[in-house]
Amino acid sequence: MSETQQILAANMPNPNPWLTQSVYPTSHFNPGATDSVTVAGPVQGKTLVEGEDAKFVRNFMVSNPTLKKIGTDTVAFASGMFGLRKLLLTGKALESISYMAYPGFEAIFEGADEATVEALLAKWDVARREGDDAKLIEAIRGISDLGFTHALGINGVYNLFDRDGFHYCVFGGTRVLKCTDDNEVRAPARVVKLADVATAVPAEVAQSVSRIIALSMTYDGFLVAAAPGAVIILDRDLNVKSYVAFSGEAVDNAVPVDEDGGIYVVTSRRMLKVVWNGETLSSDEKDGAWESGYEWMPDEKAFALGSISRGSGTTPTLMGFGDDPDKLVVIADGAEGGTNLVAFWRDDIPEDFEQKPGTKSRRIADQARIEISKATIEPSPNVLGYGVAIVNSTYPEPFPEPGFHNGFMAGVTRPAPKGIQKFNWNPATRRFEQDWLNAEIDNSDIMVPVVSAATGLLYAANKRGLTYEYAGLDWTTGEIRARWVFPDDSAMWNAFGGITTILEDGDLLIGGAFAIKRVVG
Q1: Residue 270 and residue 59: Cα distance in Å, rounded?
Q2: Is the pLDDT score of 389 beyond 60?
Q3: How many CB atoms lie within 10 A of CB 131?
Q4: CB neighbours of 147 closer than 8 A, spacing ≥ 6?
Q5: At a CB cut-off of 8 Å and minimum separation 6, what does 356 contact?
Q6: What is the DSSP string of 120-158?
Q7: How far from chain centre, in Å, is Cα 209?
Q8: CB neighbours of 64 closer than 8 A, spacing ≥ 6?
Q9: How far apart are CA 333 and CA 13, in angstroms?
């Protein structure tokens, strides 16, 4: 079988019947969080023209809109920092239908109107073009005038549509929001229910549950919310059904799920599998749950290197589906000597498997040094078949505060984190083998790429000079095959902190700090 045939034949996670059937029903595309798809992305690179093949809707900070179909129409809900924007994407459209501030965020949203955002962007662009570090710091700090805080930066990041078209996201720390547009194409979004999860768990658990970041859905239709101190199961009416507590550990990433109730959670100190049986959530080994340590550095050291996560920065990514011989879950750790790609056995550990030297437990199938990054990786790994690509996110001269500074100073007034490294898992040797390393890609945006099995390309955010672009890298060689260059050097075209989405017609949908963009392929 040729490499192209192998890519096309790669097993993917089975669709979750409780998620809406679209190309992007949930963050990271699918329950396994593989950030890989069977749909074809664009293949012919070009310089984009604003309004023609580079369309945008002004919006402050959206990571990754999720999509659903209403008949033959496609709509997206973009849950961002201050509220929820509904978009029409039918054909080649990118049209804002409505905007709804989160309950209690109405006053903050009013202060982040389009004129204010445009004025901030203009100031930002002047500082970037002048290459003035101090002016750029001052401009970036202007986001506080919009009501931004680091704690609000996770609002709406992980979100999903269920099979009935209801949308779910998390905001304001521990609140889960359920919305609908009644499945009418041009109807605005409205609130169905709002629940504060912290009020529904015992007081000793609620003390640890300071903010929910992760939101996923099991294969039997229950919501999974993960926070510092706990993993919580809710029904679709937002009633808490069960939870597992673990005090003193942070959760800064999403939680993939498998078809058998396995839920995979990376805390700041451990990798966990907890198991949902339809009624209760268990962390007991007799129910198939497990835990394993991994390498990590103290939080203050990680933050000094520019990390925004504690422990591992990656969403755990499932590898191995269907008849694949090995079933794994992979993360990037936070080792002080340099981050590693780590694979854990998802289910039973093979009887003949011996623990590998230097690993924290026998649960670890292998770990391999990631050469391009000193600190943990922030973008989730891309997995297709037994291939896994990792994006460097260590800023060489980090700004000493978390937030926007690193993403918008890197590659402008300070060096950028560069490089994407791909490994292959070899079931015969039970080891990771390095496949390729592309040192060119500028990862200042810490944007999660996407890989298309149909085109054999990995689509990654890139920046050359001040100009943002998307690059299509050959999945088998790492060579850049095509570039989609944005119309000018404005920071409006950034994709900061998002996840790249391939639409069903091959276009790209991209979030970011100042606008939601559609690249018409």
Answers
A1: 36
A2: yes
A3: 11
A4: 82, 108, 109, 111, 112
A5: 364, 366, 367
A6: HHHHHHHHHHHT-HHHHHHHHHGGGGGT--GGGGGTTSS
A7: 21
A8: 24, 27, 157, 159, 448, 498, 499, 501, 511
A9: 24
Rounded CA separation 75/189 (Å) = 11
pLDDT tens digits, residue range 143-169? Answer: 777 767 666 778 889 999 999 999 999
Helical (H) or strand (E) element with 115 = helix 114-130
205 has pLDDT over 90 = no
Separation of alpha carbons 17 and 345, rounded Å = 26
DSSP state, residue 492:
G
Q: Is the pLDDT of residue 219 over 90?
A: yes
Give the three-state DSSP class for 455: coil
Residue with token string 């203050």: 300
Q: What's the topology of domain 8-519?
A: Methylamine Dehydrogenase; Chain H (2.130.10)
Domain ranges of the chain: 8-519
Check: pTM over 0.90? Answer yes or no: yes
What pLDDT score does 202 carry? Answer: 86
* Residue 192 structure tokens: 């169905």
